[in-house]
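I had to read the description of the data format several times before I understood it. The format is easy to grasp once an entry is in front of the reader. For illustration, here is how one protein appears when written out as sequence plus structure tokens:
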Amino acid sequence: MNLLKKLFSFSIGSTLGLLIGLVSTPIITRIIEPAEFGIAAIFMTVSSVLGILALAGIDQVFIRFFYESDRLDLLRKCLFFCIGSMGVCIAAIILFGEPLSTYISPDDNYVILLTINVVVMVLFRFSLLILRMLQFGYRYSLIQVLQRLLDLLFVLSFAFIFFPNRYALIFSSILASFILSIVSLFMARSFWDPADEVRKKISFKPVMSYSLPLLLAALMTVLFQTLDKLFLNAWVTSAEFGIYAAAFKLVAILNVIQTSFTLFWAPASLEHYQQNPEDKEFYSRISKMITVTMISVCILVVLTKDILVLFLGEAYREASSVIALLVLMPAMYTMSETTVQGVVFSLKSYLHIVVSGIALTANILLCWWLIPLFGMEGASLSIALSYIVFYLSRTYFGMKHFYFDVKLLRTLLLIFCLLIWVIAVVFLDNQIILFAGGAGMFALLLFLFAEEVLDGRNFVRQMLNKKA
């Protein structure tokens, strides 16, 4: 029951954020035209790559050793390294400022904005991590809700008072993140009291040895996650890129399950492993429940894609052709979070590099092949196929070092049938294929995972009876 309370405390923010996003996204896409939306999106994409370089994998060190080390000492050492890596990153921004700015948009210079955004991203990341690792779920959720609200408030303010263009989106994101970084640090003020701290202090060597492989893995991962946009920006107009970015933003709203689960699962799985390392049934049950949930979400999104795209406005209607494929991204990622535990528990962080390298290589080849042929649809197909490769790679290495039953063969069959159906829906655009295929996918899911579906139904009934 305590586990469910923790999950709820982290998920409530994502759920409310979903509702706010359903309101804010159509408002923003009606204020900002696709070309300006696209430029802002590529700015954020470049910033995310630079932010990973600035973090240098140190944030993962903070997560991994949080429950084993003196927390204040751990944070000091992490920030020591992070300030150095951030300095290198800022120097690179200044040195390569002109080509970076030209890539984002040739009509302006973005060096100062990129520099400020990277610093704010690092500050925001650590302030949220403190709340997350202290398992202050409700406070974390409050920050998520406030981020959505402030972002919308600032976008509207900048758009109507100053400029309804890319800068309204960029400035609002930076300002909201900075304000909430300060608020988060205040909410976690108990972290700064070392009175009850009895854990040992961590040396610099584990920080270096654990973070460096993760820096490369994180950089490869963020390239993997953004490569479709980086390639697409070179092949299509800013307006077309804006439509693709809007579709991505709409799918990001649907990431509520992924975000909630990942925030809850990282500390919960580590804590459970330290307390009872032989209990594999715990991981097996969670993994199969997540598989059923995420595949169900995929089917529902594909069936309702033409309705969902109405939220974006008339100028973004073409986004419906890619939403169906993009939804595989959060599904495969969330499912892989449950199967990769063997890599985390064994401390074999170099395997994250191997996984990221495999997925990144697949994504490069697929983007190079599909985007020139199919444009936005090619980009979305490349990201969908790459995330399936990502899931398979994480599952292989995770199971190799910590095996538990996930009904892998049934899962692979389900993923294969889902992929074929979604490709047919996107490229054939036939309503019979859409709805008949959707019914067939739900039937296949019930047949392959009948026990898990019944368990989920019984669980929901128990929760409703307890509330009654």
